[in-house]
Amino acid sequence: MDTIFGVPTQALFGQLLIGLINGSFYALLSLGLAVIFGLLNIINFTHGAQYMMGAFCAWFLLNKLGVGYWWALAIAPLSVGAFGILIERLMIKHLYQLDHLYGLLLTFGLALIIQGLFRNEFGSAGLPYQVPAELAGGQNLGFMFLPKYRAWVIVASLVVCMATWFVIEKTKLGSYLRAGTENSQLVQAFGINVPRMITLTYGFGVGLAALAGVMAAPIYQVNPLMGGDLIIVVFAVVVIGGMGSILGAILTGFGLGVIEGLTKVFYPEASNTVIFIVMAIVLMIKPAGLFGTQK
Amino acid sequence: MSDTSQASATVPARTSASLRHQGVAFVVLGAFFLTAPLAMYPVFLMKVMCFALFAAAFNLLIGYVGLLSFGHAMFLATGGYLSAHAAKVWGLPPEMALLTGTAAAAVLGLAAGLIAIRRQGIYFAMITLALSQMVFFFYLQTPFTHGEDGIQAVPRGMLFGVFDLSNVWAMYFFVYAVTGAGLLLIYRIVHSPFGQVLQAIRENEQRAISLGYRTDRYKLLAFVLSAALAGLAGATKSLVFQLASLTDAHWSMSGEVVLMTLLGGLGTVFGPVAGAFTLLAMENYLAQLGSWVTVVQGVIFVICVLTFRRGIIGELGRVIKRPL
Question: Which residues does chain A have within 8 Å of residue B122's beta carbon, measured at their own beta carbons?
Answer without folding.
Answer: 37, 42-43, 100-101, 104
